[in-house]
Amino acid sequence: MTFSGFLNRLADTDLNVWIDSLTPTLIENWDNTNDGNLPKFLKALNNLPDIKTKHIKLSENIIEIGHPDEICNSQREQLLESLKALMPWRKGPFKLFGILIDSEWQSWMKWNRIEPHLSDLTNRLILDVGSGNGYYMLKMLNANAKITAGVDPSLLSTCQFLAIQKYLNAPNAAVMPLTMENVKPNLETFDTVFSMGVLYHRKSPFDHIAELKSALRPGGELVIETLVIHGDENSVLVPVNRYSVMNNIYFLPSSKALKNWIMKAGFEDVKIVDESYTTIKEQRATEWKLGTSLSDYLDPNDPKLTVEGHPAPLRATIIAKKPYGQTKLPRYKLS
Ligand SMILES: C[S@@+](CC[C@H](N)C(=O)[O-])C[C@H]1O[C@@H](n2cnc3c(N)ncnc32)[C@H](O)[C@@H]1O
C-alpha cells in the first residue's frame, strides 16, 4: 500500500489511534478512486528514474533534493518529462537534481512570514490541512518535526509529493488524499495543526475551526492563514459571485473578526501575527503553471481591487492555543 511506510511510523506515536479509521479511508480515496486523471499521474510516477541521493537541502527557499552530478542526460530527460506530466505545480519552488520547478507560488514567502511566530516544531506531531504538494511540510521536517501528516483532497498534490518523496525518503511525512472532514473526529493528539489557504473554501468556517480544534491535543497550537479584508470585529465579505476569479470562496472576515471567531471556538492566546497583501512576485504564471495568475485577477486600472471589484487578496495569519480545560464564557448576573 502506498502509505504503509507512513502508517508504520504513526504506529510508533500517539497517532496510532488514527490508523484503524485512516487505513480504510485511504483505500477508498486512493486505491479505489475512479478519478480519471490518476492513471496519467501514476504513469508519470512510475516513469521517474531510480536514483538514490543524500543531497537534501530543506532549509533554503528553493527546496533542493539531488545534485545534478548524480544523474546522466537520459535520466535527466526522463525526470523532466515525469515532472512536467505532473503540472501544474502551484506550490514550491523545488530543485530536483538541478531541475528547477518554478512553481506558481513562491511558497517560501508565506513560510518566512509565519515561521518566526511558531512554537518550536521539534518532535511535534503536525497536521497540515490543505497541504498542497507538501512544500511547507518539508519546512516542518527541516524544523525537526516528528510527524508531518498532510491532508489534501487533490490527487495531483498527493502525486507531486510522492514524486518528491521518491528521492527524499522521509517515512515520517505523507500527503494523503483526504479532506479535513475525513480525519477522525476528536483525535486530540496533534501538537500543531496548520490550516493555510483553506478556511475561505469552507462553507462553514466555524465547523472547520471546530474540526481543527478536535485534532489538537490540549495545549496544542493552531495556525490559521486565510484571506481577510480590512475592517472591524463585525466585518465579513461573502462574495456572491467570484472572488479573484475563484468560484469556491465563501467567508472573508477581517483579521479582528477571525480572531473573535477563533476565541468563540474556545481557543486562548489568540494572536494576529501577520497581515500581508499577496503580490505578483509571490503568485505568478510560470512554465510550470501555465495560463493566468494573480496579475490577470486584479483590476488593470486599480491593483487594490480584484477584477470583480472586491478588495485585492490580503492574507492574515492567526496563532492560538487550545486550552487544557473547557473555556467558559463570562456569566452575567440577571437582576
Ligand atoms: C489555496 S490552497 C493552499 C495550499 C497551501 N496550504 C498553502 O497555503 O499554500 C488550498 C488547498 O486546500 C485544499 N482543500 C480544499 N478543501 C479542503 C478540505 N476540506 N480539507 C483539506 N484540504 C482542502 C485544496 O485541495 C488546496 O490544495
Rg calculated over all Cα atoms:
20 Å
State the helix count.
10
Beta-strand fraction estimate: 15-25%
The major sheet is characterized as:
7 strands, mixed
Broad CATH class: Alpha Beta
Q: Which structural class fits the helix and strand makeup?
A: alpha/beta
Give the low-confidence spans.
none
In which range does the helix fraction lie?
25-40%
User: Kindly state the mean pLDDT as a whole number?
Assistant: 97
Order of helical and strand elements: HHHEEHEEHEHEHEEHEEEHEHEEE
How many domains in all? 1
The dominant shape is: globular
Attached small molecules = S-adenosylmethionine
Q: Going across the biggest sheet, name each strand in turn.
A: 7-6-5-8-9-15-12
How would you describe the overall organization of this protein?
The chain has 335 residues and is an alpha/beta fold. The protein has one domain (4-321): Vaccinia Virus protein VP39 (Rossmann fold, 3-Layer(aba) Sandwich), CATH 3.40.50. Helix content is 29%, strand content 22%. It has ten helices and 15 strands. It has helices spanning 4-11, 19-31, 38-46, 73-85, 107-114, 135-142, 155-168, 205-215, 255-264, 294-297; strands spanning 56-57, 63-65, 94-96, 99-101, 125-129, 147-151, 173-176, 190-196, 216-228, 236-237, 252-253, 268-277, 298-299, 302-306, 314-321. A seven-stranded mixed β-sheet has the order 7-6-5-8-9-15-12, with helices on both faces. α3 (38-46) runs parallel beside α7 (155-168). The longest helix is centred in the middle third of the chain and has 14 residues, at 155-168. Bound molecules: S-adenosylmethionine (SAM). S-adenosylmethionine is lined by residues 91, 107, 129-132, 151-154, 157, 179-181, 196-198, 201.
